[in-house]
Amino acid sequence: MKKIIFLALIFSAFGLFTKSVTAQKNKSTEVLISTKFGDMKVLLYNETPKHRDNFIKLINKKFYDGTIFHRVIKSFMIQGGDPNSVNAKPDAMLGNGGPGYTIDAEIVPKYFHKKGALAAARLGDRANPQKKSSGSQFYIVQGKIYGDKELDAMESRMGKTLSEEQRKAYKTIGGTPHLDGEYTVFGEVIQGLDIIEKIAAVEIDKATNRPLEDIKMTIKVVK
Question: Residue 25: pLDDT above 60?
Answer without folding.
Answer: no
